[in-house]
Amino acid sequence: MAVYAEHGVRFEYPDGWELSHEHDDDDFTVTVESEGTAFWMLSVLSGRPAAEDVVVAALESFKTEYDSVDVSESAERICLLPTVATEVDFYELEMVNRASLRACETDSTTIFVLSQMADTECEEVGPQLKAISDSLMYESDDAEVDDESDPFAFDNLFGGMENVIDSTAEPHDEALDGSQEEG
């Protein structure tokens, strides 16, 4: 796997996929493309537009571009914060294509992730696109660097590590209501 780690963003993507950048003032977009038609795109929007507005604008683009578009909501999140998520199926060149749209607001930006593939690529490329999203990390404004050799102190994207359940932690002696449990 190759690693992208710039502009406060880190993710892993398959070796051999082509990576490209676009910058517009403080906003930037990073795209990785497979050898086929599949791609994964991350946009970091510094103006912090509402996540729902970003997804609605992307949906309007699909509806303008393609005659037949099927839209369904998704409960899938990228990491920990509430995410506006939509699945889109559209038809081009007599093929069904699938796109996943995800947007979330952090304290300082809006993150938009679009992944897209032809239905003939779903079995092979679908898990790879999900793995890219699953590996996505965002550099927190308040992240503390523990190791000076590591140029990034990343939080899980869309939420800090304090939101992650520590499975190695000792159980609490207090009940949920704050009273002491008898042992």
Name of the CATH superfamily: Mog1/PsbP, alpha/beta/alpha sandwich
Counted by DSSP, the helix tally is: 2
Provide the residue-averaged pLDDT.
79
- The level of helicity is 10-25%
Tags for this model:
Protein Transport Mog1p, Chain A; 2 helices; 183 residues; alpha+beta; seven-stranded antiparallel β-sheet
Description:
The chain has about 180 residues and is of the alpha+beta class. The protein is globular, with a radius of gyration of 19 Å. It has a single domain (about 1-145, about 150-155), classed as Mog1/PsbP, alpha/beta/alpha sandwich (Protein Transport Mog1p, Chain A, 3-Layer(aba) Sandwich). The relative contact order is 0.17. The strands form two sheets. The chain has a seven-stranded antiparallel β-sheet with strand order 3-4-5-9-8-7-6, with helices on both faces. Strands 1-2-10-11 form a four-stranded antiparallel β-sheet. The chain contains two helices and eleven strands, in the order βββββαββββαββ. The longest helix is centred in the first third of the chain and has 15 residues, at about 50-65.
Ordered list of secondary-structure elements with their pairings:
Layout: E1 2-6, E2 9-13, E3 18-24, E4 27-33, E5 39-45, H1 51-65, E6 69-73, E7 84-92, E8 95-105, E9 110-118, H2 122-135, E10 137-139, E11 154-156
Antiparallel strand pairs: 1-2, 2-10, 3-4, 4-5, 5-9, 6-7, 7-8, 8-9, 10-11
